[in-house]
Amino acid sequence: MNLILFVAVIAVLLVLIALCEPLAERLRLPYTVLLALVGTLIGIGALLVTAGVGGELFAPAAAAILNLPIRSNVFMYLLLPTLLFQVALRLNVRRMLDDWVPIILMAIVAVIVATFVIGFALAPFTSLPLVACLMLGAIVATTDPSAVVSIFRNTSAPLRLSRIVEGESLLNDAAAIALYSFFLTFVMAGVPNPTLSDALVQFPVPILGGIAFGWIMGRASSSLMSWLDPFPRGQLSISVGLAYLTFVIGEQLVGVSGVVATVVAGLTINMLGPGRIGPGNWTYMREVWDSLAHWATSFIFVLAALLVPRLIADAELHDLFLILVVTVSAIVARALVLYGMLPLLSRFKLSPPVESPYRLAILWGGLRGAVTLALTLAVAESALVPAAVKHEVGIVATGFALVTLLVQGTTLRWLIGRLRLDRLSPLDQALSNQVIAVTLQNVREGVSRTTRRHELNSDVVRSEAKQFAERLSRSLERAEAADDTAESDRVTLGLVALGGRERDMILDAFRQQLLSDRLVEQMLSDVDRLIESTRIEGRNGYREAGRRSLNLGPRYTLAIRLHNRLGLQGLLTQLTAARFEILLNQRLILSDLHGYIDTKIRRIHGKHIADLLHEALKQREAEARKSLNGLRLQYPAYATEMERRFIRRTALRLEENEYHVFFGDGLIGREVYTKLLQTIEKARKQLAQRPRLDLAVEKAEFTRQFPLFQDMDDRQRQKLVRAFRTRYAEPGEVLVRRGDVERNVYFIASGAVEVSVGGQAYPLGRGEIFGELGLLTHRPRRGQITAITHCTMLLLDEPGFRKLLKRNEPLRQAVLETARQRGAVLEL
């Protein structure tokens, strides 16, 4: 094909892609569906022109279109990696992990169900062997729900539902390709057929291997991007190279799923990027990837649609019947998942409840796209596949994809409207009215100040003020209609507004660089969960989500076990430092939200609702303060350093604002202004390096807190610190069981434990010790000791404790007194 003509055709397609976007909005069609329609029409037109219908004027253009090098590898290796990587880069990974069970089950089990339902439904009506029918089922099993996801995002559909559908779309491609590859070996001539045991072993390997390979590539690339932080274009280049190298190397050299590897690499960059790439560079990278993915998606649908007329040109009446069979069986298979599997997952609390209208929308929104057509092309291009299989698979798979795009795609928005999914719920409508009322009141005050300052014509001002007052009055009436709503619903409205304001304050703190890049995503994820939980469960959901954000979680449990059993403190140090920074910023943000209640929410919902919101907020504040104080007690030196750095960040922000004012007023020139900002940025980079939390160093601070150790000199304290071992415990963890023989004595540095003896229980707190008598007498314990809070304890074995008793007379006397009270005789 002539290179100049090829470039011209691509340029024309880019123009058509640009025009399709506003046209799709005007026609109220999904953008990708319109692209497929346009591509199909262009393909039909090119075939007609080459057949002599349009004369010789358009013959060169038609020939150029038909000669475009559209192969399966173009979709799989050129366009698909871009699409996969961008979606992975944009996902809210932490929130996606909340729903990993339904995502994995729908992405894998749904594909398997669809493959076998379609394959067995098709087999009685065709001469193809069963394995060829199953291969066809795998080809058409993968869905492209981009249309339904985009529509859900513009409606009041639950956010968790959109995340599940989006997560499914990322992973079901890999499952479908793996099944397709397995059944293809049965169809290809001269290729040995695998056994069932081979299949059971081989099927998970590409997926699990892709996860491992993608994670390694993502970790390595994130480190390289961190080193290139002053060069945003270099970081972008690394990310583009990562997407393609991961896909190609994974597929061709490592032998794993390139789809899974590319997705995992993108998710890894998503997780690590905010902490290793500057905020401006991170935003720049994601915006460029959005553009790349837009072009990739557009070309996928246009180029695939160009092939549709050629692939189904030889279709017969019987082929149309087979397309109908596949269409019906695909809908039935998807219905089995949506109406069978999802309710079961919801019953076991593994998936959000999905109401029937949403399930129907997802069912009808199971469009087939690029992967289906790419696999169809791969079959058509294979020299080892029999001609009859090529012909039948090409027509049926392409025809089915065309049906989903032309029938389901064009009617999806209409169905959404008929199901009333495009309307706000009563609660969201009340929230919308509240927002409008507050906004208009603020606008009125701002316009009033502007008119007074500029001395505008009084008649014009009065006329406009009258019209605006009427609009404001109507909005206040709608907002005050919330008084007819139950108190619980009005409290929910207020709490949702509070959550939204909290999210804005987190973003504002991030923009002002008061909040570390690496933690903003986690805090935003927590507040998104809080808003969603509040919408569903009201005040109880708000309270529970707030507590959940303070929970340490399974990673912290793992970190504690690694430290206690293996002496590995890296993960525990990292999580503890991050927890301190989050709690410090969260407490400050929560305290500022009280002003928002008084100035904004109270004006709409009244004093009573405002008081209830203050109460809910104070409860969250108290819980955050309690957790923060616990960390301060455990790590006083680190706490002091973190608070000092927070003050310095605030001072830098205020200093930068002053320089902006001086520059804006013309008091300093560009050169001076640039130099001052460079000084600010240098100081910020130094503060961005989180101080090292050394758990061993903190032991020295612990010993100073014990009254029994205050008279020790520095040399004695250093020896004691070296002898101490640190142990962390979670609430409910049993430290010593009844009948155990003590091997250590425990000094409680922070937290509290409960001693249960003879049916009675009493607590021990910070600064107290236990286990000393059992250690010295070697008698089995008569009671049990359990942690009732998060605890930090210092441990000494028997030789170390006896040495300490000889050097520390106050401790020796305290132990003897305890033994006397309990009737024990000690020789020290």
From TrEMBL:
Residues 462-489 form a coiled coil. Keywords: Cell membrane, Coiled coil, Ion transport, Membrane, Sodium, Sodium transport, Transmembrane, Transmembrane helix, Transport. It is found in: Cell membrane. InterPro entries: Cation/H_exchanger_CPA1, Cation/H_exchanger_TM, cNMP-bd_dom, cNMP-bd_dom_sf, RmlC-like_jellyroll. PROSITE patterns: CNMP_BINDING_3 (PS50042). The keyword Transferase does not apply. It comes from the Bacteria. Residues 708-822 form the Cyclic nucleotide-binding domain. It is a multi-pass membrane protein. This is Cation:proton antiporter.
